[in-house]
Amino acid sequence: MVGNEDNIQGDFDGLVHINFDSPCSFSWFSEVWDNYAPKLITESDHPQCVECFELTSQHREALHRKDNVGAINILEKKNKHIENAHKVFEVSKLAHAHAAIYAEEAAIVVDNMASKSIPKFKKEKSDSWSKDKLTLHIGGTHFDHSGDIKYYIYPELISESANTITSQLADSLLILKNSKPSLKVVTITFDNHSTQKNYTVIGYLEWQIKAGYIPPDGYFHVIYLVCGHTHSHLDAANKSPRMQYYKAKAIESPSEMV
Q1: Which secondary-structure segment (H or E) carries 214?
Q2: Domains and CATH numbers, the chain
Q3: Residue 106 and residue 217: Cα distance in Å, rounded?
Q4: In whole angstroms, how far apart are CA 79 and each of 70, 73, 74, 134, 154?
Q5: Residue range 158-168: average pLDDT?
Q6: Residue 222 in 3-state DSSP?
Q7: Are 154 and 127 in contact (CB under 8 A)?
Q8: How far is it, in rounded angstroms, from Cα 63 to Cα 5?
Q9: pLDDT tens-place string over residues 26-67
Q10: For the chain, which terminus, N or C, has the lower number of CB atoms within 10 Å?
């Protein structure tokens, strides 16, 4: 450990051993945190749902003003929002259950993970490639009828708002058709990533219907989960590749991401 102790700059190996021999308790750490950094919000404390965060802030402000009626109304509004989010999630879970039972029904969950970067050994002259690192878009599909998961990796030059989503859908739908030839209903649950909500996705599904992917009495059911309330079974599975990415000493090519 290198640092400053009593205005002395240097190596303090003894402090390292003290930290390991007598680690601080969680209660002591929490007390220090509350005393010295009361306004510091961690990611776990910060709701991922923007509406939840805003309503929580309004609720605290109302309590601070001693506006009990206003605080109750805001809390009721937040509870209603959470209830609606849970209802949408329940529809997705019902499709998940049906996919494993009925031959004519299938369901997939599409999750687009946070993009990852890998270093580049050669800096190309082309403007689009003249960067020191390559950003990779990662998408995962969970097939509810079998429990299988397939991941897709694309370089940053491919438009994430169109090409990566539709190509991922194309391959996923082909797998579904081969697994369940008598398909009539396909439920697609998106995690509400901004790149999924565009005319390209809807246009592609319309083209699949006109091409006869499903019979006239069938349909695609597209579900967009409420932002901040999208933790599905695919999210749990995504922990594995995410942990492998951060655990790896070096990832120097797209093939090493696979």
Answers
A1: none
A2: 2-40 (no CATH), 87-257 (3.30.420)
A3: 15
A4: 14, 10, 9, 42, 39
A5: 73
A6: strand
A7: no
A8: 42
A9: 777 777 777 777 655 554 444 567 788 888 889 989 998 889
A10: C
Q: Give the E-state strand segments of 60-147 in sequence order.
A: 105-119, 133-143
Contact 116, 136 (CB under 8 A): yes
**Residues 154, 137 contacting (CB under 8 angstroms):** yes
Read off the amino acid at residue 253: S
Q: How many CB atoms lie within 10 A of CB 227?
A: 16
Residue found by looking up tokens 């396909």 in the block: 186
Q: What angle separates helix 50-64 from helix 68-99, to the nearest 10 degrees?
A: 160
Beta strands in the chain (DSSP E): 2-5, 8-11, 105-119, 133-143, 148-155, 185-190, 219-224
Q: Are 183 and 147 in contact (CB under 8 A)?
A: no
Q: Binning pLDDT at 50, 70 and 90, where does residue 1 land? A: very low
| Res. 106: pLDDT tops 80 | yes
- What is the predicted pLDDT for the residue at 20? 67
State the DSSP H helix or E strand holding residue 102, giving kind and residue range, or none if neither.
none
Model confidence at 130: pLDDT above 60: no
b (16+ CB within 10 A) / e for 238-251: beebeeeeeeeeeb
